[in-house]
Design brief:
CATH architecture of chain A: Up-down Bundle
Structural class of chain B: mainly alpha
Number of domains of chain A: 1
Radius of gyration of chain A: 19 Å
Shape of chain B: flat
Largest sheet of chain B: none
Shape of chain A: elongated
Structural class of chain A: mainly alpha
Number of strands of chain A: 0
Oligomer: heterotrimer
Helix content of chain A: over 70%
Order of helices and strands of chain B: HHH
Number of helices of chain B: 3
CATH superfamily of chain A: Cytochrome c oxidase, subunit III, four-helix bundle
Number of helices of chain A: 6
Order of helices and strands of chain A: HHHHHH
Helix content of chain B: over 70%
Largest interface: A-B, 47 and 47 residues
Strand content of chain B: under 5%
Distance between the termini of chain A: 54 Å
Chains: A mainly alpha, B mainly alpha, C mainly alpha
CATH class of chain A: Mainly Alpha
Strand content of chain A: under 5%
CATH topology of chain A: Four Helix Bundle (Hemerythrin (Met), subunit A)
């Protein structure tokens, strides 16, 4: 059970958890760059930023937030289940979370399509264009993370629901993807 | 066991309530107050996610420091960019 | 160092006599644990991965060096006669990109850090051995992208990729170059992550934080920067690529974007990256100084803490790159003050090294000569850094050769000296062979002389007003440029020397004992070269770091 450089299972588990949190720190800094861009844009053009933000679909964003929060709750329950050695429940809950992730992506795609129809997505000039660029890059980067995360959840559910450390670390990643959306939502949709 | 599941369910409901609060806030307050509400709620939500969902409540102090360390560093970036932006 | 005769060749009449071509230690070492290519390219042994890095990093050092040679040859005359304007821009851009991301940043951490951290803390490997191998492959992919850029016509933005030049005006392979740096960034992140977890979780029994070698402390600080700063560079480069490819205009002033924001994001990474480059060097010098003086380091906690202080304060100073770029003058004042603060922990280190050497019985071996050059050049580079941190003075010398000279004193005088110092100090440990001391001393002296001749004239040039990145200049500056290019040729020859005598030592060098320098530290308790699993038995430490015998107090006798 214990791999090469470790002497105990506990040591190995602690190392894996710590490594995951360090990795999540790098993700926070990655999105942090986008948050800095958003901050800079808002400080330079406060009024236009709010105007552009109000054009976005607050309710679609809210529904998507609820979807991600719910899937995060499922993952938390899955981690709970794996610790109780209920591997079937772990699998099922991970699949639910992954499906909710796909639902999130579907809603996001619908939202992009709606915005495109309304001519909102690629306005020709000015700060609104800038805002929508910011919106596209940051939600796109986030959607990429959701895609990867959902894939990981599905893979772990299918092949390794009994590997507690793997389940926990996949869960941590998914929670962070959720937490980033929790901040992206007010930054982009709720500027007033 | 059962208690732990109940706790997670409560946190989930609290998160949805906070979501409702922040959406409601976006229709009622504007300007600086709006920023305080929306980012205050977001911070509260993330705190719940980190503490309960990511199990920081049972982790050791060091892991907790690692979990929030990057946020402190991000604060440096945002603060110093703001100093330049607002006084330029 | 050892009493084994040099050049003991195998007796050709005795088929069982293998001479010195393979010592018993070597036969049992990581070097002989598997001879296939597969055993190297799919290894998870941190020592083998360190050697993979050693080879690849050395390769890029010479590619970057060739670009530097072109620059220096072109600058011999006031007219730009060797390279076209475009060609000159491409030469210094590639020199910068390759030297920063493909040599300096991975140089000491990924070779010596990789090799030594597990040995120094009594571990069998890094925390995530497969991740470590992945990190090398990512580095190689990034390197191949850079070579593609080189072949496909290069890039002319300077290593800083400033907008709007890079996003709107530059022609070359900007996107590909940004991709290369983006990719190699993940290699840095994985290495930093691995080091942090290793140092936290894999210290052997008794190896408390207060007993860690200072090399490990400085790598811990370096890893924190790698992990916290690199992702910001990744997203920034991605935005540059998005701007060029799709017209995403967050830095485009035409749309209301802010080109200065690019500089903020870039320097939020790149200034701490300077400390990524120099902190491992500081760690190496702490080891070399204590080993040369055979004394405990003076003020252990101050030296260890100063590494962390440099890492932390290093994140607060980036705005000094933007003093003349249109940043608010209030922000500039804040950044100027904070930049002066970094000098304090750096000075703490220098004072403690000199205090360590004081009354030590110093061995004038090559590692010490490199350490001594490091200290001298680092002090000079650091003090001129203070000059540049002063808001008013910087207005005069910003973007001149004064800046070039300053950061080369830190990066080349400092880091590259430390790199070669580390190579000469740990070479016997890595390969089990010693090299001729006299050649090591000659190389150290040549580097010191060549370096100063190359870069000191650039301080004068910069003070006289010669801007960086120009290859045409008024004829009255030619004398300084010729001096600089002469120094560069000496430096170039000096860098080639180790190829001869270190490679020679691999076959003909006398075998090294486990501890040829009489140094303290766990890595010297294992055979040279170390066995595959590092330690046969997990070591237990019950003594402080640098456990050298206390010296006799001469003064006590009156």
């Amino acid at each position: 059970m214990v791999d090469q450089p470790y002497s105990t299972v506990l040591q190995q588990r602690e190392a894996a958890t710590m490594g995951m949190f360090v990795f999540l720190g790098t993700e926070i800094m990655l999105f942090g760059g986008m948050f800095a861009v958003a901050l800079g844009l808002r400080l330079t053009h406060p009024r236009e930023f709010v105007d552009s933000s109000m054009q976005l679909h607050v309710w679609i964003g809210a529904i998507n937030t609820a979807v991600l929060l719910t899937s995060s709750a499922a993952v938390a329950l899955a981690v709970h289940a794996v610790r109780a050695r209920q591997f079937r429940a772990t699998s099922v809950l991970f699949v639910i979370a992954a499906v909710l992730g796909v639902v999130f992506l579907g809603i996001k795609a619908f939202e992009y399509a709606t915005e495109y129809r309304e001519g909102l997505l690629l306005p020709p000039v000015g700060v609104q264009r800038l805002f929508m660029d910011l919106y596209l890059v940051s939600t796109g980067l986030h959607a990429l993370h959701v895609t990867v995360g959902a894939g990981l959840l599905a893979a772990v559910a299918a092949f390794a629901p009994q590997r507690a450390t793997l389940v926990e670390n996949t869960g941590l990643f998914w929670h962070l993807v959720d937490a980033i959306w929790v901040f992206l939502y007010p930054v982009l949709y709720l500027a007033r | 066991m059962e208690q732990a599941r109940k706790r997670l369910a409560t946190v989930w409901l609290a998160l949805l309530a906070l979501l409702a609060l922040t959406v409601a806030g976006s229709f009622t307050v504007t300007g600086a107050a709006s920023a305080v509400v929306s980012f205050g709620v977001a911070a509260a939500k993330v705190a719940l996610i980190f503490w309960f969902f990511m199990q920081l409540r049972t982790e050791k102090g060091l892991i907790r420091v690692f979990a929030v360390g990057a946020i402190a560093w991000l604060a440096i970036l945002l603060t110093l960019v703001t100093i330049d932006k607002v006084t330029r | 160092m050892t009493d084994v005769p040099i050049n003991k060749r195998a007796d050709p009449n005795d088929i069982r006599d293998r001479g010195l071509s393979e010592t018993p230690e070597e036969r049992a070492s990581y070097l002989r644990a598997g001879h296939t290519l597969r055993s190297w390219f799919l290894t998870t042994d941190h020592k083998r991965i360190a050697l993979l890095y050693l080879v690849s990093v050395t390769f890029f050092f010479f590619v970057g060096g060739i670009a530097a040679a072109l620059i220096r040859i072109d600058l011999l005359t006031p007219e730009g006669d060797l390279l076209s304007n475009e060609g000159y821009n491409r030469a210094f851009t590639l020199h910068g990109v390759i030297m920063v991301w493909f040599f300096l940043i991975p140089s000491i951490p990924n070779t010596f850090g990789n090799f030594l951290i597990p040995l120094m803390i009594g571990a069998k490997d890094l925390a995530f051995p497969r991740l470590n191998l992945l990190s090398w492959y990512i580095y190689v992919i990034g390197g191949l992208c850079t070579l593609f850029v080189l072949v496909a016509g290069g890039v002319d933005t300077g290593w800083t990729f400033y907008t709007p030049l890079s996003s709107m005006f530059a022609h070359g392979q900007v996107v590909m170059a940004a991709t290369a740096v983006f990719i190699v960034g993940f290699s840095s992140i994985l290495t930093g992550l691995n080091f942090i977890v290793t140092i936290h979780k894999l210290r052997c029994p008794g190896m408390t934080w207060g007993r860690l070698p200072l090399f490990v402390w400085s790598h811990y600080a370096t890893s924190l920067i790698l992990v916290l700063a690199t992702p910001v560079l990744s997203i920034t480069l991605a935005l540059i690529a998005a701007e060029r490819l799709f017209g995403v205009g967050v830095f485009d002033p035409k749309l209301g974007g802010d080109p200065l924001l690019y500089q903020h994001l870039f320097w939020f990474y790149s200034h701490p990256a300077v400390y990524i480059m120099v902190l491992p060097g500081l760690g190496v010098v702490s080891e070399l100084v204590t080993a040369a003086a055979r004394k405990r380091v003076f003020g252990y906690w101050f030296v260890a803490g100063s590494s962390l202080a440099i890492a932390a304060v290093g994140f607060l100073v980036w705005g000094h790159h933007m003093f003349v770029a249109g940043q608010s003058m209030y922000a500039s004042a804040v950044f100027s003050f904070l930049s002066l603060v970094v000098a304090v922990p750096s000075a703490v280190k220098v004072y403690n090294w000199t205090a360590t050497l004081y009354k030590g019985q110093i061995a004038i071996d090559p590692p010490f000569l490199f350490a001594a050059s490091f200290i001298g050049l680092f002090v000079f580079g650091g003090l001129t850094g203070l000059v540049l941190a002063m808001l008013a003075v910087d207005m005069h010398v910003h973007d001149t050769y004064f800046v070039i000279a300053h950061f080369h004193y830190i990066m080349v005088g400092g880091t590259v000296s430390a790199y070669f110092g580390a190579l000469h100090f740990w070479w016997p440990k890595m390969f089990g062979r010693t090299y001729p001391m006299v050649w090591g001393r000659i190389m150290a002296l040549l580097i010191y002389l060549g370096f100063n001749l190359t870069f000191f004239p650039q301080f004068i040039l910069g003070y006289l007003g010669m801007p960086r990145r120009y290859h045409v200049y008024p004829p009255e500056w030619q004398v300084w440029n010729v001096l600089s290019s002469t120094g560069a040729s000496i430096l170039g020859i000096a860098y080639l020397l180790p190829f001869v005598y270190l490679l020679w030592s691999l076959r003909y060098g006398p075998p090294a004992s486990a501890n040829p320098w009489g140094a303290a530290g766990l890595e010297w308790t294992v055979p040279s070269p170390p066995p595959k699993e590092n330690f046969v038995e997990t070591p237990v430490v019950d003594y402080p770091a640098y456990n050298y015998p206390m010296e006799m107090e001469e003064g006590a006798r009156g």
